[in-house]
Amino acid sequence: MYILLALIAACVLGVAVHYALPHRAVRGVALVPAIATAVAAAAYTLGQWAGLKESSVWLWLIALGGAVVVSAVAGALVTSVRHHGDAVHRAALGI
Prior knowledge:
Elements: H1 2-20, H2 31-49, H3 57-93
């Protein structure tokens, strides 16, 4: 049941990461929060399987910290790839 709290918190943190990263107009508004939620779900589940209890600070740090870090890296990577792809496309069109 506590996994729902982790997923909701990860989604909220993903929204915060989306708005904290520059050039948010070139990526979808739901991409970074979705990545954060998926990472938190996987990390929380793996932590539970590893024997961490719901009251363990490490479980929450791994789930939420991992969600923030991975979603920030993924958002920056998607933005970089999109900018590069747009520049190549503009060059091909002669714009």
